[in-house]
């Protein structure tokens, strides 16, 4: 190595051969240009795929719909010609004109009523909207860490009987802009299903205004206190089921991860735990932060509100995602069926138009840890102000996840991708003793995952009736499938099967494109922008905002104005009340075959189609702009520190972990309970899934029979974890050492009979299950059993 004076000598470089300089420059710059070219090619590929997919979907969808519109137009023209030929065109027009005018008047009066209901609801503080009565059990304002959350006990309607010894259901309402009520605003709801099964039902609600100094950690603390209170009120029941809808889903994960004693099953419905996941050419919502600013926007809006973030902003974003539905067709359907739809419309709008508020610190945490930073999905989320780590790997409660391909707010990728992000492999889930079950619906939308009657009466009802068996499920990753619909005297029944899955099954929901880099860049820029805003602009914004201006910013929000301006406070609307009463008394509906009704329907379809076309072009522009801004080669360097790189732990690496090594040392130690659990683990591992009837038998053995009934839940969990580790790493030795666990002939007979009883009839067993049972018989010296119908442990 030359000294510094020699290196700085200009003669050294002048005298150096040009070939040597060219070689050094080439060696240093060429790799950089190669990396830039590769990154540019990847960006170009993503842009090409996004463009082609968007255009293909638009062509397929809109050409089909356009063809239907032309067909209906031809049919309409023929109908008009026929009516004109009969000389009834003028009569049909007059009939339609009167009907449409009356419907317009009734619609305006309904909008007036909606405005009045909105103002009354706002004046009352936006209380919950439920189909049944309720009473307050516990208030978060009375806890050491104060919050605006409250625990409500739902009072069953007349004729519904509830058994307090049954497992309670706790439904947590999402604070995503709306007032509480999404899980229980109608009879066909999560509350209604739990009532029909005889379960006590509690609901975690919240007041509109947050408490002063409230953080998300306060909310987590209150929710955990509520669950413990329900456990105290039902000492004879099993641990409660906690249901988290939408945003309440990831909040439920936070609560259970920091309160390990709350180990009852948790159900997540349409919960965006990995909000930046999705497929190219789809899922436009995930690009919004990169196009319209990150966390500093929510900070600014909160400052304009005097430190309070208005949930109406979230509702507005949700509506603009599907403008054809939320801003147009909702009112079209009301206008076309105003006579029958008025009651349902007002009930739904009462909940939809109740806007909650959040503190600025709360919404900033949510944005930075989920929707921009994606920290929760990388297991890097910390609470404020206590800085507690929300380690999702510590959760021991069974996790049941609902998702849907038709959900454009929380697609399956956002509901499921956190699993392979956090865990190294599916074996780690098993060895940690965790149960994760997911179910993906084909077409239901976001709200439908927790309010649709067909989902509630099928998927949710089946899960509610299968929970006892699910809790007895061996650790692992499973998919729940509900099939074989059978009609019996007008009643539907379903066949439920839990199929063991791998991370590859979850990755199949993705398109294979690695687009995590640009979101990491967005997260880094968001942090910088938030810091700049906090340092440079925030003091002046906060100083300029007064209580009056903060209230005005909420009062004049477009979502509130569209309701309040059409209320009875507007003198123009007052007259509709008396006019609508006269119209109802003399209502004259147009005949169903009136061609102008068909023309009306065709017009509305054409307008809807135009809005959908504009929405699709908008979404395509958003996606292409996002990738051009954030997925270019220079951003690859910028986002490098924030991308999540990790070395996956292999099964061989995990073998040497202390708890696994200790379990393997106990391969020849145990008793009847250890042997039966080991054999069941071997059967499930060999088959790869288990039906509900088999789960039910296994659940009955664990909860009602000795030696399991006398074991504590923690002891049973520990045995299951140890035997799962043994079967995972040493399956052959696990079988060969069974006689060492069962030293007495009677124990061997009972253990083998129990192993044969749980799978059920031999005729329904797979060949691998039969072969495994035969191996048990050979090792334990037992004669082969054809069928075990009665529980062999029940008579001991």
UniProtKB/TrEMBL annotation:
This is Polyhydroxyalkanoate depolymerase domain-containing protein. InterPro entries: AB_hydrolase_fold, DUF3141, PHA/PHB_synthase. It comes from Rhizobium phaseoli. Keywords: Plasmid. It comes from the Bacteria. The keyword Transmembrane does not apply. It holds the Pfam family DUF3141.
